[in-house]
Design goal:
Blueprint lengths: L1 H5 L8 H5 L4 H10 L2 E4 L7 E4 L2 H8 L5 E2 L29 H9 L5 H20 L6 E3 H18 L8 H10 L7 H27 L6 H6 L9 H15 L1 H16 L1 H9 L1 H16 L4 E6 L3 E3 L2 E3 L4 E5 H4 L35 H17 L2 E5 L4 E2 L8 E3 L1 E6 L3
Parallel strand pairs: 2-8
Antiparallel strand pairs: 1-2, 3-5, 4-12, 5-8, 6-7, 9-12, 10-11
Helix pairs in contact: 6-7, 6-16, 7-12, 8-9, 9-11, 11-12, 12-13, 12-14, 12-16, 13-14, 14-16
Bound molecules: protoporphyrin IX containing FE.
The site of protoporphyrin IX containing FE has 29 residues, from helix 11, helix 12 and helix 16.
Length: 409
């Protein structure tokens, strides 16, 4: 079996596979022939690939054996401890620190809080859609996905509105893990991340001196668990919320266009009955896009898993994009089916103690976009080849040129 994974075409982390959107057959083969496979060599060093649905759940359910901690290298395939930006965020912590920190900010994205944001979210979505040119080519990523997600993150942090354009720049740099050990790119990454940290620290200190409010920064500033963080922990906390809420939802909004172009009949159904189907369509979009293609764990002990010997210190990569296409759970898995009954079981938000804290907010953003598009009877046709990110972590689009029509005006 090891020989199978040793072949370069079965190193599924290769950036060109993601850029060319050609990874599907390789994962299909791994799922059927070697679902827990060892890749002895790659740009990121050796790693295990977990590709089936049940196996991803099994690994995520045993957080003691399969650690998320930054001390072992963190939660992406690239070892974060090798850079000046280690991102000590709670997504990259084990118990008990993880839960303490998670609890402190959870209220900011609790259902009641999200409901309060729903009106503003709908209004902004409508404004962005109404500003789009009809019948002329434009880039959906830069005209819709980025402005909408940036506005939501600025609202969550109560970040100065006139500076919000900085948020996606910082977030993109924080999330660039595929640059590997390149010293120049890492230096640039550090520059952006430290600029982000110092601006956020200024606002954080202001919020700390002021009475508590409902935004994320104020909640952190007044929480006993965040009070006096070291610099790397502060950077990590901010970067987590920024990247968590930015690239992911952005790429779901772009992925939606990909899906409705592939499945125009399903889109027609959604437009005919958005009240019934918008939420399912949003969930299916997030399943199929899988904006975070993988999370990584590190084995804390030697363990036998599905007949394979995983050694202490080994990297274990959980491929959500593959688990979400496991036919034993999602029949006709590559089909975008807003009426799919078990779509909510997808693993795009992960599983277990680290399951995404912003899942409901992300779903609401994508469903609102779908509803507002349906209201305008929008058709959005892809014009030319989409430009995808060369990343096995952030699975998404650099540019997505489209031509839009609507029958309501
Ligand atoms: C479609 C959009 C999104 C996707 C696909 C996504 C995906 C993920 C994934 C895969 C994880 C790790 C789960 C695991 O290890 O089991 C995660 C964790 C997290 N996400 Fe999201 N996310 C999205 C939106 C958001 C938003 C909007 C926010 C916040 C505003 C957010 C905040 C977080 C946080 C704080 C964590 C860490 C949870 C923990 O470690 O306990 N995410 N997300």
């Amino acid at each position: 079996m090891a020989t199978l994974a040793a072949k370069p075409e079965l190193d599924v982390s290769r950036a060109e596979l993601w850029k060319a959107n050609s990874w599907r057959p390789l994962f299909e083969k791994l799922r059927s022939d070697d679902p827990v496979s060892y890749c002895p060599d790659s740009f990121f060093g050796p790693y295990w690939s977990i590709t089936r649905y049940d196996d991803v759940i099994a690994v995520e359910s045993d957080a003691e054996t399969f650690s998320s901690s930054w001390e072992h290298g963190g939660i992406v395939i690239f070892d974060m401890q090798d850079t000046g930006v280690q991102l000590r965020m709670f997504i990259a912590m084990d118990e008990p620190e993880h839960t303490e920190k998670r609890k402190a900010i959870a209220p900011a994205v609790a259902p009641t809080q999200i409901q309060k944001l729903a009106g503003a979210l709908r209004q902004r979505t409508a404004e962005v859609l109404d500003s789009l040119p009809v019948g002329k080519e434009f880039d959906w990523v830069h005209s819709v996905s980025i402005p909408l997600t940036t506005a939501m993150i600025a609202t969550l942090f109560d970040f100065p509105w006139e500076e919000r354009h900085k948020l996606p720049v910082w977030s993109d740099w924080a999330a660039k893990i595929d640059i590997g050990p390149d010293p120049q790119l890492n230096a640039e990454r550090e520059r952006h991340v430290f600029e982000m940290a110092s601006r956020f620290k200024e606002i954080y200190d202001e919020r700390r001196a002021a009475p508590p409010k409902g935004d994320l920064l104020s909640m952190m500033a007044h929480s006993e668990y965040y009070g006096d963080m070291d610099e790397q922990r502060f950077i990590g906390a901010i970067a987590l919320l920024l990247v968590g809420g930015n690239d992911t939802t952005r790429n779901s909004m772009s992925g939606l266009i990909d899906q409705i172009n592939r499945f125009p009949d399903a889109w027609a159904k959604v437009k005919a009955d958005p009240e019934k189907l918008a939420s399912g369509a949003a969930t299916e979009t997030i399943r199929l896009q899988t904006p975070i293609a993988h999370m990584r764990r590190t084995a804390t002990r030697d363990v036998e898993f599905k007949g394979k010997q995983i050694r202490k210190g080994d990297k274990v990569v959980l491929w959500y994009n593959s688990a979400n296409r496991d036919e034993s759970v999602f029949p006709d898995a590559d089909r975008w089916n807003p009426e799919r009954e078990n779509a909510r079981r997808h693993l795009s938000f992960g599983y277990g103690i680290h399951r995404c804290l912003g899942a409901r907010l992300a779903e609401l953003q994508v469903a609102t976009l779908i509803e507002e598009m349906a209201k305008r009877d929008m058709e959005v046709k892809i014009a030319g080849e989409p430009e995808r990110l060369a990343s096995c972590f952030t699975n998404g689009f650099e540019h997505l040129n489209v031509i839009m029509s609507r029958t309501d005006v």
